[in-house]
C-alpha cells in the first residue's frame, strides 16, 4: 500500500512539473516573440512585424501596399513598455509607449499602444492579435 501511495505521489509531482515546464516554455516563447516584435517596430520593419500578427487577423484585415507606404513616412524614436500582465484566459497584454517622428515635418509625438497576445498551441507560437500600431489615430 505504501508503494502505491509513493508511486501516486511521484506521478502527481511529475505531472505538476511537466505543467510548470510547459508554462515556462510558453512564457519564454512570449518573451522572444515580444522582443522580435518590438525590434521590428523600433527599426521600422513593418512588413516583418506584420508576419508576427495573428494569421486570422491578417486574413480579415489585409494590408495594402499603400498602407505599408504610410509606415515609411515615420521613424520610431522610442519604444517603452509601461506594463504587462498575463490574463486568466491564457492571453497576455502589454502597454507600450511609442515615440514617432514624421519624416517630412520632423515633428515628434508619442502615443500609447496596447499589445494583445494569444498562444497558438497548434503552431507552438504567440501571435499579436490587434495588428500594427495605428500611428495616425485621430489624424
From TrEMBL:
This is Nuclear transport factor 2 family protein. Residues 1-27 form the signal peptide. Keywords: Signal. It comes from the Bacteria. PROSITE patterns: PROKAR_LIPOPROTEIN (PS51257).
Amino acid at each position: 500500500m505504501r508503494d502505491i501511495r509513493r508511486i501516486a505521489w511521484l506521478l502527481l509531482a511529475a505531472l505538476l512539473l511537466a505543467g510548470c515546464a510547459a508554462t515556462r516554455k510558453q512564457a519564454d516563447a512570449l518573451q522572444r516573440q515580444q522582443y522580435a516584435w518590438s525590434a521590428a517596430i523600433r527599426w521600422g520593419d513593418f512588413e516583418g512585424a506584420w508576419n508576427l500578427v495573428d494569421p486570422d487577423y491578417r486574413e480579415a484585415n489585409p494590408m495594402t501596399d499603400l498602407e505599408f507606404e504610410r509606415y515609411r513616412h515615420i521613424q520610431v524614436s522610442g519604444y517603452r513598455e509601461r506594463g504587462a500582465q498575463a490574463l486568466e484566459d491564457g492571453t497576455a497584454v502589454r502597454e507600450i509607449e511609442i515615440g514617432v517622428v514624421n519624416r517630412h515635418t520632423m515633428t515628434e509625438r508619442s502615443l500609447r499602444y496596447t499589445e494583445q497576445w494569444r498562444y497558438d498551441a497548434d503552431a507552438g507560437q504567440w501571435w499579436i492579435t490587434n495588428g500594427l500600431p495605428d500611428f495616425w489615430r485621430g489624424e
